[in-house]
Each structure stands twice: as C-alpha cells, then as structure tokens.
Amino acid sequence: MTGFSSRHIGTDGAAQWHMLDGLGYDSVDALVKAAVPASIHSTPRSTSDIPEPATEAEALAELRALAGQNRPARAMIGLGYYDTFTPSVIARNVLENPSWYTAYTPYQPEISQGRLEALITFQTMVTDLTGLATANASMLDESTAVAEGMLLARRASKAKTDVFVVDADALPQTKAVLRSRAAAVGVHLVELALADGAELPDELFGVFVQYPGASGRVWDPSAVIDAAHLAGGLAVVAADLLALTLLRPPGSLGADVAVGTTQRFGVPMGFGGPHAGYMAVRQGLERQLPGRLVGVSQDADGHPAYRLALQTREQHIRREKATSNICTAQVLLAVMAAMYAVYHGPEGLRAIASAVSRKTEALAQRLRDYGQNVHHDAFFDTLRVTVPGTARTVIERARSKGYQLFWADEATVGISVDETTTAADLAAVAWAFGAPEADEHGERELFWDGFEPLAKMDAALKRDDDYLTHPVFHTHRSETAMMRYLKQLADRDYALDRGMIPLGSCTMKLNAATEMAAISWPEFADVHPFAPEADVRGYLAMIEQLEIWLAEVTGYDSVSLQPNAGSQGELAGLLAIRGYHDANGDTGRRVCLIPSSAHGTNAASAVLAGFSVVVVACDDEGNVDLGDLRAKIAAHSAELAALMITYPSTHGVYEQDVVAIAQAVHDAGGQVYVDGANLNALLGFARFGDLGGDVSHLNLHKTFAIPHGGGGPGVGPVGAKAHLAPFLPSHPLAQRADHAGGVRFEGGPVSAAPYGSAGILPISWAYVRMMGASGLAEATGAAVLAANHLAARLREHFPVLYTGESGLVAHECILDLRPLREQTGITVDDVAKRLIDYGFHAPTMSFPVAGTLMVEPTESEDLDELERFIEAMIAIKAEAVAVAAGEWPADDNPLVNAPHTAESVVAGEWTHPYSRETAVYPVASLVRSKYWPPVRRIDQAWGDRHLVCACPPVEAFA
C-alpha cells in the first residue's frame, strides 16, 4: 500500500501479516479469493477508466480545475432553492466538524443525546412554523416529502377513491416526482388551478397545495382545504418555512400535513442537495409519519432523555407491510437548519423574511414603473413577469451581468429573491428587463426604503401569533454562546472521531479530510440545481467521471446519481425493471421475490414500485434456499418481475450459488436486482453485472466514503445493464439527457434535483480518484481481513452464526449472543449498553437475526483498535459468566446497569455489589480517554406511552 490508500486503510503490512498468520493465509489476495466464490472472480482488465491513484494534493488540484469550470453566478431561479448565508459558527462547528458528520444513526440513544437534542429542536422549529402538532426528524427533499404526504393521505383517508388533486402552481420537479410515484401505486392525479377557483372532484382522498405557489402567488387555500375535508380527503400543503414567519401557517388554514424544505435555513444549494426536507402533521396523524421521529423519554434515574420514538414504524421491521421505504433522514442538514433558527431566533428570522419581502415588493414596483407586467399582486419572494416573445433575451441579458433567472416559457420569466440579494442585484435584474441602470449611491433608496413586507397581502393571511418561544431559540445569540452550545451537544455524542463504530451492514469507514474539503468551496456549494448547462460544466464533468468509474467497478453500462438515499436507489432500480417489462408488453409481471434475510427496505421499495412481494426462504447457512427459490419461480413464472438479492448476503457471507440463482430468474423472464449495500466486501474482486445482476443501487455513504452525518446525508446511485438504462431516472429540468426516456410510465424522477445530493459527490469522486482501482481492491481486502480476524478471535467466546464454504465471512460477522442469554440471562441489549462503558458504539443489534450482534470493523481501523474491541467483548463475556456464577445478582450487575454516567458513580452512596472502578474503568486504557455517556439506560417503552416530540421545558432538566 502506498499513497493515499495507506492512510485510508488502518492496518499496515506488519499488522496484516499478523492477522493473516492467525487465519492461515499467506496474502490478503489469497484470503479474499478463498472467501469469494471462484465463479464470480473478476477477470483483470487490460485497461481501466479509473486513472492511477492521485495524491491528495493532485486530487484537490483536479477538483479545483473542475470547480473552475462552474461559472460563478447569482442564482435567482428559486423553485425551492435559494442562496443563503450559512453562519460561520455553524459551518465550522457542524458542517466541517467530524464530531457531527462522522456520527451514525442514533439507534443507541444514550450516546446520541447531542444529535437527538438538535433534531428535536428541528422538530420544534417545524411544528412552530407550520402550526401543526408533530414533525418528524427530516425528509430527503421537498418533492419526495410531497409524495410521502400523498401516500400518508391515501392511507389515513376513509375515501374510497384513488384520486389525488395537485395544485397547478406546484413546483415542476414536484409534479414530476408525483407522476412517477403515483403511477407506480395506482394513484390518479388530477391537476387543477386551485388558486383560480377550480372545483374539486366529487371524490378524492387528498389535495396538494403549494404555498406560496411556484409562480410566487400567495392566496388563501382554506376554502379548498375545507372542500377536501368535506369530500373525505386530507390536505397536504407544501410551505416555505421562511415565508411562514410572516404568513399564516398551514395548520391555521386547516391543513392536515405540511411538507417542504429547510434548505434556505443556512444550507448551501449544492447543485440540489443534500437538504433536509420536513413533514409535520396534525394531532392524530403522528403514528402515520414516515421516516424518523425523535421523542422524549427518561433514563434509569428518571432524568429526561431523547430517543427515536415509535421505532416499530422503522421500515426494516415492517418490510412488505411498510407504508414508506424511507429508513433514513437528512440529519446533518436538519441540524444545520435547526441551528440556523437557534442562531437567529424568531426575531432574526422575521427580519430576514421581512427584508426578502421588501426587496421583492421594490423590484416588482421597479418593473411595473418601466412597463412590465408582473403577474400577481400578492407574493413573498418570487415574481413572474410577462415579456411576450423575449423571455430568452431577458434571461441572457441577466446572464451577461452574472445572474440566473428562470425561463418559465417564451413569454414568462421568473425571479426569486433571497436573504443574500443586494440592491445591486435588483438593479441588474431590472436592467435586464429594460430599466435603466441605477447609480451606485441611489440603489438602496431606489429599491429598499418605503416598502412594507407583504404590502398587498390580504390581512387575513398575515401571521399574528408567536412562534419559536422555547428558550433554545433565545439563549445562544453571541458567537461564544453558540460555539459552546454546539460543542456541548457534540460532546454528548459518540462518533468516528472518538473510536470505532463496528456496525454491520453500515460500513462506518474513514471520511478523510481531503475528501470532504471541496463541499465547502463556493464553486460547488453555491450552485443552483437548475442552472444553465453552460454554467455548470465542472459539475457535469465530475458527475460523468464518477458515473463512468462506478459503472466500471460494478460491471454495469449506465449509472444514475439522482437517488439521494439507498432506499430511493432501490425504488429507481425497481421502477426501471417495471418500465422495461411494460415496454415489452409484460404488464402482468408484478411479483418480486425477496429472501427472508433481506433488509426491510427491499420489500418496502418493491411495494412502492407496485410489486407484490413473495418471500424466499434461507437455509441454515444463511444462503438463499435454492429449492424454495425454484419452487417460487415455478409458482409465479408468468408474473415474475424480479428477484432482489443482497450480495454478499445480509448474513455476511458470499453465496456460492449466486450465478445459478441469477440464471434461474433470467430463465423465467425476470430481472435480477442486486442490493449493493455490501459492495465494500466485493469491490475490485467481483462485479454485480458479471454475476448476473441487471440493476443495483450503491451506497456512497458506505462503500464510497460519504459520511453518515448522524443518519444522513446519503447517496444511493443506481447502475444498470444497457437494456434497463433507458428506464433509469430522468428529470424535466436536467441540464442534459442522461438516459433515454426515463421511467416508461410517465415522468421518472425519484428526487427533486436532477443529480440528487450533488453537493457531496466530490467526496466519492475524491475517494475513487485517490484510491484508484488498486486501492479500492486493497480496501476490500483489508475489510475482509479485519472481519475474519475478529471472527476468529471471538469465535470461542461467541459463536459466529454464518460462514461460507471456506469457513470465512465477508466484511462482517454475526456474533450469536443467544447462548449467552440462555446461560447467564444477559441480553444483547445488556452487552450493547455495556460496550459504551468500554468506550465503544455497539455493533448492529438483532439484525438480521434477533439476539445477535453484526460486527463490521471496516478497512479503516488499525490493529490496536480491533484488539481493543476484542478485549472488550471477551471481558464482557467474563462479566456475564460472573453473573451466572452468582458473583453479582442478576438484577444488579455492571451489565444490566450499563451504561454508567459520571453522576451515577459520584453522586450519593454507592450501593452496588461491584466497584465504581468496575463500572466505569473496566479496562485500564479508559482512565485517560474515557467517554462519559450523558444519560443512563433509556426506557424506550415509557417514551412511546408518553409521546412528546418537541423541546421539553427547561424545568424538565432541573
């Protein structure tokens, strides 16, 4: 290993020789080839599209050159994306801080209290601004949030109809996402000009209103909402949160569901993402919410503590009964948006919104003064201007001054104002429409003074209630206070900057600083997703290179980077399969076979793509049961659409019969979907396309080094063979035609932006560029070696549940703790919580098998850290044995009382039968480097019985 790969991979040559010696292999290559079935080994390529590995300096220089191809411009396109000022204290202490961006999903709440507090602040912000009872911990983007709102309305409504009404003034990308999502599940969309008084159909299950509209128009939708309720439907309103500081909230208008984006709350545009969407619901619908919900519970001492509420809603549990396939959030971006509200407070947000409104009013008046036809009198930040036959001329004049406006049609131009807009910007835009240029000293007076916010707005639509009243939005106003608050929250969490997070299936590997650097560069961060192609050539070149590289390493012909989560990549791949069958006249192929071991999002995605799920059994070794598979294929041969299979399997083994499995499905006319979640165990040694896969999604937030960010962002690109490529996601506002046709049965996008969360793609580009094809293979080898080392060292203490024919595991191993419970009474939960006392995040609990731990060390951890984990697991086993031997009572021992806080061992009299040292310093290495959990074990059930999902009063923590 040389260059960057030697820094990314934690074990050096000496460490690897040590581990190989214990396993009985003479090289990493020999180990992996023994584990991976010979039938799928990749043939070495004579040439590669992936260049030789670059140094860190070279990769940054190449990224600088790509960034330089993006033409700097002031984006005034709007349509849900706005330039914004990210407070420097948030940029430095959240976005660029590994304590925040390397954290995992808060499934272990005791070591996630900082993140959870930030997310409940986000939820409180959303509920206050929308006027609704409960908000979740974020959605993927606005358009997919609208689609989720549509599905929520369908299942919550008692109306016996498939009709959903869509506002004609909705965002174009939202209409497109709705079309593709609705067609898949049999929803009939009816588009109506609701603001112009169009009557609703007699039957509907819901109505969707954009507020303000895409054209900028603000109107009172309460009558439409009332009519929808009379028809038995629910009302979904997409609302601009900044506008809601001045406008009546959706809840007061009667809305059942509010959705939208929090992007303009300090989160850069990033060519489309990642951004935190939001969803809020009225009382009574909280158990219908998709995604994640943070709630308040209490710990073992009765202290308030945060945790994920109603976790049985998680889609990996509900599987084919799921109502959504979303199992992630946009945590890092939700934290940024929440802290933006904390930083500004309600007064600051209202001042920003008022300034935006005043600027827009002034620009409208300026345009009218020079004979332009501004469409609406009531607006917040967006204008539509009629310029018969000259729209392109106006837009090009604006571009000549460095501004991007929206081309609505040949006669209409759109302009959107944001918090960064200056008087000079307004003067230049007015000039593009034919007004004279303002002199330098007269600009502010010309555009600013004398205008009131929402000047021509109906008084009934102006907001008059208080919001963001919780002390958190009023306390941290100085830079010092804000910095310390963010530090305090981060210190309550455990992230990769503290130690290993050995989570099976989630690949918590290094997120190198050089990979992260470019996401903050303005040439990447401050780019609108619908900017003209000529202005984003650097982005498009980088995206094309990454697509080519990903296609090569997976064995596919085409890749789409649009899906902004693994679940959305699954959906896109399944929609491509459906589109392909339909194009061939096989409209009856609607059965999807899925092994019982699969992650629950597989089944959920299949349902949302309009398929029926048929479960295939697994054998005792964790492999797909070939006999059951052939029987299911025979039973459904005429209607078989696809098989979804994870490779290596969710059980952490390389299935020997994967080629035969794929062939059996192909022989029956079906397609093979290979879930790419475990690609980290295959890269450089085998390719999905070569083992029979037709389509796969990948997880860039796993295999390709994008950080998890506390549970999001993610990117889930989808790759496909040539025959499916025409059915990969398209987008109506894409700068180029990536795939011919898009999803066949209308539309095609699965996310709001053409390239999804493009703002974080420089991370994966840099990872591949610096690793090269050789480094990617080295990473796979190191990951497989580390997992087998752990399995071999721990096997005598905890049975390893599944291995391949060679006796080896893939990049993860499943430790069976069920015998431990039978022998000692100690549960998998007890072990997971006790690991916190040893300074570790627990492995994946009870998935895919209840009562087990799935451990994935990744290639990034060094041998010392692996040995530290092995030492902790062996010591915990000894503690459990001591409980069984009667040395400690079953109800009062270090395991059932774990984790131990500093307060629990210092305050009051120590009454436990084990020492304080045993409680918090079970191994000597912890004395100087102890991570102290802020709360004791949290009572999950109590929190669900007493559901509170907004910031509790300060007195609760007294």
- How many DSSP-defined strands? 25
The span between the termini is 54 Å
Q: What proportion of the residues form beta strands (DSSP E)?
A: 5-15%
As a percent range, the share of helical residues equals 25-40%
Q: Major sheet, described briefly?
A: 7 strands, mixed
Low-confidence stretches: 740-747
SS-based structural class? alpha/beta
**What is the CATH homologous superfamily assignment of one domain?**
Type I PLP-dependent aspartate aminotransferase-like (Major domain)
Reading side by side through the largest sheet, how are the strands ordered?
2-8-7-6-5-3-4
For the residues shown, what is the average pLDDT? 94
> If you consult CATH, what is the topology of one domain?
Aspartate Aminotransferase, domain 2
Helix tally equals 32
Morphology = globular
> Any idea of the CATH class of one domain?
Alpha Beta
Round the Cα radius of gyration to an integer and report it: 28 Å
Give a description of the structure:
The protein is an alpha/beta fold. Among the domains are: 107-330, Type I PLP-dependent aspartate aminotransferase-like (Major domain) (Aspartate Aminotransferase, domain 2), CATH 3.40.640; 520-771, Aspartate Aminotransferase, domain 2 (3-Layer(aba) Sandwich). Helix content is 37%, strand content 11%. The chain is built from 32 helices and 25 strands. The chain has a 7-stranded mixed β-sheet with strand order 2-8-7-6-5-3-4, sandwiched between helices. Strands 16-22-21-20-19-17-18 form a 7-stranded mixed β-sheet, with helices on both faces. Helix 8 crosses helix 9, helix 22 (566-583) crosses helix 23 and helix 26 packs across helix 29. The two termini are 54 Å apart. Mean pLDDT is 94; it is low at 740-747. Its EC number is 1.4.4.2. It holds the Pfam family GDC-P. It comes from Microbacterium protaetiae. Its cofactor is pyridoxal 5'-phosphate.
